[in-house]
Automatic annotation (TrEMBL):
Gene that this polypeptide is encoded by: nhaR_2
Coiled coil: none
Superkingdom of source: Bacteria
One GO-annotated biological process of the protein: regulation of DNA-templated transcription initiation
Signal peptide from the UniProt entry: none
Native species: Comamonas testosteroni (Pseudomonas testosteroni)
A Pfam family reported for this protein in Swiss-Prot or TrEMBL: LysR_substrate
Domain LysR substrate-binding: 52-222
Record key words, sorted: Activator
Record-given protein name: Na(+)/H(+) antiporter regulatory protein
GO terms, molecular function: DNA-binding transcription factor activity
Length: 226
């Protein structure tokens, strides 16, 4: 019976994959993006497939747990997140590391001089913006503050990394961000790098669903490692 179910599921998956990959003028890829990931990092992670001919890309941003549920139900082709999928026998998914990036601290021009003086101890005095606890990197940041004996002057916490960056660039406070996006961050948003968040990294994962037929662009994404 189990084999018959697998054959039936395979039969359901084949038409869509073959149609998208061969018979259709476009190849659709539906990507779920965890809302804590910086969008500039997402663009870098998606680079291996962005220039694929005839690509039709659909990106959906949501919370990590909701994305895993949609992936398990085959509503998504792949999920990009800052953590691997947790062990769960009911979720037939698997995780692939796309690498990691050291974290650094950035400041708007209005706060740079004050924050640069006696950095990183200055983070106890200048306004600080942080990701909320739902981001995997937040626990690592809290541990870093403890190691450095810093009680940060936190005035804002954001679930959405885009909002964190936007409010920081607008002058509300200094903030941490993956060094992976340094060039775009400093060029497009006019912030300056204060220094490293030594020993703290943000990790990136692509999570796929267990299928007999894997989307060819997901295969291409999984073949890369940051």
């Amino acid at each position: 019976m189990r084999q018959a179910e697998q054959i039936f599921q395979l039969g359901e998956q084949l038409p869509a994959v073959v149609r998208d990959a061969v018979g259709m003028p476009t190849m659709r890829l539906i990507v779920g993006i965890a809302d804590e990931l910086p969008e500039l990092a997402v663009r870098s992670l998606m680079q291996p497939v962005m220039l694929e001919p005839h690509l039709r890309l659909l990106c959906l941003v949501d919370e990590f747990e909701d994305l895993l549920g949609d992936l398990a139900l085959h509503r998504l082709d792949v999920v990009l997140a800052d953590r691997a999928a947790p062990p769960n026998p009911n979720l037939k998914v698997y995780s692939h590391s796309l690498g990691s990036s050291p974290l650094a601290w950035y400041a708007p021009a209005s706060l740079f001089a004050a924050a640069r003086q006696d950095f990183p101890q200055s983070l106890a005095k200048v306004p600080v913006l942080l990701p909320t606890a739902h981001a995997a990197v937040r626990a690592r940041l809290d541990q870093w503050f403890e190691r450095e004996s810093i009680k940060p002057h936190v005035i804002g916490e954001f679930e959405d990394s885009a909002l964190l960056k936007t409010f920081g660039a607008a002058g509300m406070g200094v903030f941490p961000m993956a060094s992976l996006v340094h060039e775009d961050l400093t060029t497009r948003y006019g912030v300056k790098r204060l220094g490293d968040c030594e020993g703290v990294e943000e990790h990136f994962f692509a999570i796929g669903a267990s299928r007999k037929v894997l989307h060819p662009l997901v295969q291409k994404l999984f073949s890369t490692r940051g």
